[in-house]
Every structure is written in C-alpha cells, then in structure tokens.
C-alpha cells in the first residue's frame, strides 16, 4: 500500500475517505517511482495465482499484517484498501489508515492489469496528469486467494513488500499462519511481518 503526497490536503482527505491507506497532512511521503530492486532473504520465488476475477476482488480489504515499508511508516492503525472497477477497465485504488497523529490518511491511485490473468497488476499513485509517463508504476501480485475471496496474500515480485488482507478486520490464527507459510515458501522474510491494529469490529 502506498501513500502519495499529492493528496495531502484537508479537502481531499475529507472527500476521499472511502478508499484505503494514505498520508496525513503532517506526515506526507513522496510518490514511489517504481518497484524497488531487492534481493530476497528467502529461498522461494514469488508466484502469482493463476487468475483473479477482478469483479469479485473489488471492494474493501482490511490489512491484517505487512512487511515494513517506507510509504506506510506514519500509519498507526486501521489500514484498509478499497478497489473500485472503472468503466475504462482500470481500478481505482483507495488506501486509508489512521496516522500516528490521530488523523486519517489517504492516497488514491490507479491499477491496471498486467497480462490477462488479473492476478498481476501495475499500480500508480502519481497525479492524474502525470500517469501517462512510463515511470511510477509498481507491481502488485496476488500470491494467494481463498475461493470465496475473503482472504488474500499480496506482494511485489522482488519479495520486498507483502500484505495479508481480509474482508473483515480480523483473521483467525489458522488462516493467518497458512498465509505466512505461503509467503515464506515464496521467499518473503516473514520474520519481519508486523500485525496491523484494527479498531473496527
């Protein structure tokens, strides 16, 4: 989940509270330029699921855990992501969280399919006017997804970023451990996973 400096205004935060993860007015970060190149600490290789029905995948997801990342360093709790399909076929990405200063933070981006499977996306958080540029796009792979689309494991293929997501604010321990095991088998350093505080119940 990324947070973009572009949306750090009171007006935009007030108008865009539906989609997940963001930056507070006093805790803004810069927009990423691309997926970072990193060496995995694991032994496996990131593997996206065979296919994802993006119509079913759309909607609100709660972050259960994540690997530490710069763009979420100011998020204290209640991290969510909401995906909304657009008439163009692209997906609006709305990241939201509660900042360390107690203020809501938000960042809105756009995702597009990278291939036909729907399990590999390219996400960008640059301002709308700059999204035509061939930079700023990050990889978003769905690594695991239950048949009912209730739980998902998402990461970047370089194994640097990882998120465990759920349709509800909580996840039972058995499901969580299954996700962790899958991530570890794909080379992610699960020893650094941080559980996310969710106050919604």
TrEMBL record:
Residues 1-27 form the signal peptide. Its main location: membrane. GO terms for cellular component: cell outer membrane. CDD domains: lipocalin_Blc-like (cd19438). Keywords: Cell outer membrane, Lipid-binding, Lipoprotein, Membrane, Signal. It is found in: Cell outer membrane. InterPro entries: Calycin, Lipocalin_ApoD, Lipocalin_bac, Lipocalin_Blc-like_dom, Lipocalin_CS, Lipocln_cytosolic_FA-bd_dom. GO terms for biological process: response to stress. It comes from the Bacteria. One of its GO terms (molecular function) is lipid binding. Residues 52-198 form the Lipocalin/cytosolic fatty-acid binding domain. Homodimer. Involved in the storage or transport of lipids necessary for membrane maintenance under stressful conditions. Displays a binding preference for lysophospholipids. Belongs to the calycin superfamily. Lipocalin family. This is Outer membrane lipoprotein Blc.
């Amino acid at each position: 989940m990324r947070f973009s400096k572009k949306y750090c205004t009171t007006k935009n935060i007030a108008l865009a509270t539906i989609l997940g993860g963001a930056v507070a007015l006093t805790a803004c970060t810069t927009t990423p330029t691309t997926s970072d190149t990193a060496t995995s600490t694991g032994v496996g290789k990131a593997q996206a699921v065979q296919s994802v029905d993006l119509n079913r995948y759309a909607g609100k997801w709660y972050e259960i855990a994540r690997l530490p990342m710069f763009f979420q360093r100011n998020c204290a709790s209640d991290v969510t992501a909401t995906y909304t399909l657009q008439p163009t076929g692209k997906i609006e990405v709305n990241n939201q969280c509660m900042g360390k200063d107690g203020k809501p933070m938000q960042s809105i981006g756009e995702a597009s399919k990278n291939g036909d499977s729907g399990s590999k996306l390219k996400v960008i958080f640059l301002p709308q006017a700059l999204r035509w540029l061939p930079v700023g796009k990050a990889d978003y792979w769905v690594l695991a997804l239950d048949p009912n689309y209730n739980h998902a494991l998402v990461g970047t293929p370089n194994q640097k970023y990882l998120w465990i997501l759920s349709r509800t604010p909580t996840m039972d321990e058995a499901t969580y451990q299954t996700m962790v095991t899958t991530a570890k088998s794909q080379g992610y350093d699960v020893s650094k996973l941080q559980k996310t505080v969710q106050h919604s119940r």
